[in-house]
Amino acid sequence: MAKDGMFNLIERKNLLVDKSWNESKKMWHIAGPAILAGVCQFSIGLVTVAFVGHLGDTELAAVSAVQNVIEGFVSGFMLGMGSALETLCGQAVGAGQFNMLGVYLQRSCIITVVTALILVPFYVFASPILKSLHQGKEISELSGKFARWVIPQLFAYAINFPIQKFLQSQGKGWVMTIISMIVLAFHALMNWVVVVKLGYGMLGAAIVGDISWWLLILAQIIYVVSGYFPDAWTGFSSLAFKNLYGFVKLSLASAVMLCLEMWYFTAIIILVGCLKNPEIAVDAMSICMNLELWAVMVALGFNAAVSVRVSNELGAGNPKAAKFSVGVAVCTAALFGIVFMIAVLATKDNFPKLFTTEPIVCTRHLSLGVAVGAGWQSMVAFINVVCYYVFGLPIGAILGYKFNLGVQGIWTGMIVGCLLQTVVLFIVMIKANWQKEALQAEERIRTWGGNAESDRIDYNSSMRPIVLQNY
User: Fold this and answer.
1) pLDDT tens digits for range 52-81
2) Any stretches that span the bilayer, and where are they (predicted)?
3) 3-class secondary structure per residue, the chain
């Protein structure tokens, strides 16, 4: 009996190891290209900042204000409006209904382009907006000029976010990664030519950024429509304009969730801009955030991976598999967070201790990935309000101004808000009823996918109860 018990224990252990390894491979197949593409696309803005920084402190502060305040504000909403696609495409792939993906993609692009049109005034009136936020007059006026020059990038973001989700939901991210790498190299070269050699300054940097982003978008569009997705892309369809209500509903919930996430960091920049010597303070915080965001790119890769894996398994009616995906992702993200923290502490003479938040960053974005995959956007939006705006920002303001800790005090408040949000989301994730989430995923595919598609799809409604009986 003892031998049989030991044998069964070893067998279960080996089975667990095999399942974890297989799940890890599936996750890395999505996370790997997502991380590399994210780093490359984020680095487009970082390269712009690097070249503009050689023009002067005021120019650097102006571009940083546009990227962190105006684009941070706008990108949060745009990314959120595109993230509905992540939930619906992932769950449709899990259910094997690939012919819904092309219509979903077109619907999402319609919504994000209309959103971009609505958000254009934030770029046009960037200067008075920044002045109203008590930013320096010279910085605000220069920021306003730069913001108007980069309006074409706003519409590039509008198309980029949906295409990313479309590709990631099907595990087809490597082409997107290669395109991003090529565009980043082109962007760096053109900045050197236009800004440094030809001396066109901030205007040249803005135009190069516009060209680089639209090269990225056009290359991705060509990839999508060139026949590589025969089941998912069957051409442009008028169905994209029908039954938009459910899609807009989920898009708005995603937008609010991610806006509150990204606007938190915008608010941090605004608080820093109100300190003494705002040029130096904003420059310092921008450098901190840019370096921190490199770690965030890794976390966002896991965000995309766990979102796709959870939505795939829920769409397929496999709640235990979805929960297991979350467990593997938690362990992997925590491991990478610890590695990043050790690397930063090992180089503390070169990097300030402000950059020791990577475990929080990784786990926080992992939790957001689970939320998107399961469709919990509305609940997470409420959690973000409480953790960030009731606790994080007030604590940062008190430490920064009342106790005269400046940038370090504001950064500490940011960390408190992020840590609190991470803990709350982790508790929600642990207590989730995954079988219930699988049933809701089926209902979401049926209802929010649109009646037009449902009429065209032979969906076996008896499949779901049979799958769930195994659990």
Assistant:
1) 888 887 888 888 888 878 887 787 777 777
2) 30-53, 60-84, 104-125, 146-163, 175-199, 211-230, 250-275, 287-306, 326-346, 366-391, 411-430
3) CHHHHHHHHHHHHHHHHHHHHHHHHHHHHHHHHHHHHHHHHHHHHHHHHHHHHCCCHHHHHHHHHHHHHHHHHHHHHHHHHHHHHHHHHHHHHHCCCHHHHHHHHHHHHHHHHHHHHHHHHHHHCHHHHHHHCCCCHHHHHHHHHHHHHCHHHHHHHHHHHHHHHHHHHCCCCHHHHHHHHHHHHHHHHHHHHHHHHCCCHHHHHHHHHHHHHHHHHHHHHHHHHCCCCCCCCCCCCHHHHCCHHHHHHHHHHHHHHHHHHHHHHHHHHHHHHCCCCHHHHHHHHHHHHHHHHHHHHHHHHHHHHHHHHHHHHHHCCCHHHHHHHHHHHHHHHHHHHHHHHHHHHHCCCCCCHHHCCHHHHHHHHHHHHHHHHHCCHHHHHHHHHHHHHHHHHHHHHHHHHHCCCHHHHHHHHHHHHHHHHHHHHHHHHHHCCHHHHHHHHHHHHHHCCCHHHHHHCCCCCCHHHHHHHCC
C-alpha to C-alpha distances, 347 to 285, 297, 342, 350, nearest whole angstrom: 19, 20, 9, 6
375 torsion bin: left (phi>0), alpha (psi -120 to 50), beta (else): left
How far is it, in rounded angstroms, from Cα 214 to Cα 155?
9
**The predicted structure's pLDDT at residue 419:** 82
pLDDT at 354 over 50: no
Position 468 scores a pLDDT of: 30
* Radius of gyration of the CA atoms of the chain, in A: 23
Contact present, 97 and 150 (Cβ < 8 Å): no
pLDDT digits (tens, 9 = 90+) for 9-46: 777 777 777 887 887 888 788 878 888 888 898 889 88
Max alpha carbon distance in the chain (Å)? 82
State the Cα–Cα distance between residues 258 and 250, nearest whole angstrom.
12
* 285-331 pLDDT, tens digit each: 666 665 566 666 666 677 777 777 777 777 777 877 877 877 777 67
Q: How far apart are CA 375 and CA 249, in angstroms?
A: 11
Q: Give the pLDDT band (50/70/90) at residue 374.
A: low
Which tokens belong to 146?
């730069």
